[in-house]
Each structure stands twice: as C-alpha cells, then as structure tokens.
Amino acid sequence: MNTSVLRIGIAGITGRVGRLLMEEITSRDNAVLSGGTSLSKDIHDIPDSVQIFSDIASLVEKSDVIIDFTNATATETHAKALNNSKTAWILGTTGISESVQKLIKETAKTIPIVQAANFSPGVTLITRLAFELAKALPADQYDAEIVETHHRQKVDAPSGTALAIGESIAKARKVDLGSVAEIGRKGFTGARKKDAIGFSSLRGGQIVGEHSAIFLSDVEEIVLTHKAFDRRIFAKGAVRSAFWCINKPAGLYDMNHVLGLDPVK
C-alpha cells in the first residue's frame, strides 16, 4: 500500500462530521479525499471534484481507509463491504446492536479497524481516569453516575461515549454493565442500589457534547468532566487514526492504541 499519499473515503460525507472530515483531509499534503457516500441530496457545498458514490462497496475499492460516522442502520452493510478488503475502517458510529458488533469483530479478523465512541483524545483520557477511580474507590462506598448532554438532533441515548465511560467503570468493578446500569429513572424506584451505575441524558440546543463521570460518597464528590466545543475534534481524531492504522495487522483497535497507551485491562 502506498502510504505517501493516503486515500481516505468518507462514509456519510454530507453529515456534520463528514463535512469537517472533508476539510481536514483536503488540508493535508499527505492525504487525498477518494470520495464519499451520502443518502442526502444536499450536496450544494460539496466541491464538484469530490466523487459521490451511491454505495459503500464502490468507495471501498477506491480507498485505503474509510472513515465512518454514519447511522447504526448502515453499519452491517459497511462491515460486509469492508470484510476481506484491503481497506482499513475508522468507525465512530454509535448505537450499534450486539449482533452487528459481533460482525465488526469478525471483520476485524481481516482488516484493521479503529472503533471508538468518541475520537477526542480528552474523552479517551477521561474514560481511563474513570476506570482508575472506579478501581480504587469501593462500589459500596462510592456511587457512580454519568451525565451527558447533547444537541436536540441526537437520536440515541445514552450517548455512545457515556456508555463507554460506564463500561470502563463496570470493567474496573468487575461487573457487567447491563446488569447494573440504571438508565432514565422514573417513578417509585426505591433506594439506589449500591452497585448501580446511573445514566442521565439531556438534550437541547446545539451542544456538541458534554460528559461527566461523578463519584459520590458520604463525605466527598469527585467529578470528571469533558466538554467538546467543536466537532472538529472528532474529525481530527479520526484522521489521526486513519494514518495510525495503515500497515497495522488486522485487528480491532481503539483510541488508546492510537494515543500510544496500553489498553485498559
């Protein structure tokens, strides 16, 4: 593979992050935008020189890497198109079902995939810090709550990033998140379970993304907070991941690998 000029394709090029990805890629001397896919007909500000493909398979053939921030309903199709290809996959789509996640893992046996709920370096570090806090602070003494806020157009809740932080806390406490998560409490819930990990989701305005992991005991409160002011941070992280994964062996990677950090165990 010629890595002197990296051919990067964008799945969902007309989306909010897709347009930022286009700017990031075209601003680099060592990358070329191989094209994009879009379900939207709103391509008025996409340069005529950018090829829009009607299907992902055609874009895969023209690309060394695909960056994908599309809807979870498209992920299965994308995984099948990328499987056994020579094209790496940077996947930032959230809300993916368990069955499709299994397909992603199978695809990672044939190509390198960098999958992250959030491509911000800051969020990656916040998630690691949440793990360390959860590992050090006993669950029967420190309640863990996660609060996330996003723009009104976001379609999934809790956010993928909030769930990733929750998974990190659950991993540190050696429990299954699905068995301890309390999402959107309502009505007469009874006293809080000592091992619960709570999630609250707020939606409004055009907030890019805010996440807080909160640990509360009888005598103190510890809050880890990350606020994204510009979606460009996600585009920058994804493009960084695209360059990182070239010539890596097939496998499923995350932002810890990209940042040169040991995976959380």
Automatic annotation (TrEMBL):
Q: Which InterPro entries match?
A: DapB_C (IPR022663), DapB_N (IPR000846), DapB_N_CS (IPR022664), DHDPR_bac (IPR023940), NAD(P)-bd_dom_sf (IPR036291)
Provide the binding site for (S)-2,3,4,5-tetrahydrodipicolinate.
H151, G160, T161
Cross-referenced Pfam families: DapB_C, DapB_N
Keywords of the record: Amino-acid biosynthesis, Cytoplasm, Diaminopimelate biosynthesis, Lysine biosynthesis, NAD, NADP, Oxidoreductase
Q: Which GO terms describe its cellular component?
A: cytoplasm
Specify which residues bind NAD(+) according to the UniProt entry for this protein: G12, I13, T14, G15, R16, V17, G92, T93, T94, A116, A117, N118, F119
Keyword Ribonucleoprotein among record annotations: no
How it assembles, according to the record, is: Homotetramer.
Q: What is this protein called?
A: 4-hydroxy-tetrahydrodipicolinate reductase
The beginning of the lineage is:
Bacteria, Pseudomonadati, Pseudomonadota, Alphaproteobacteria, Acetobacterales
Q: Which gene encodes it?
A: dapB
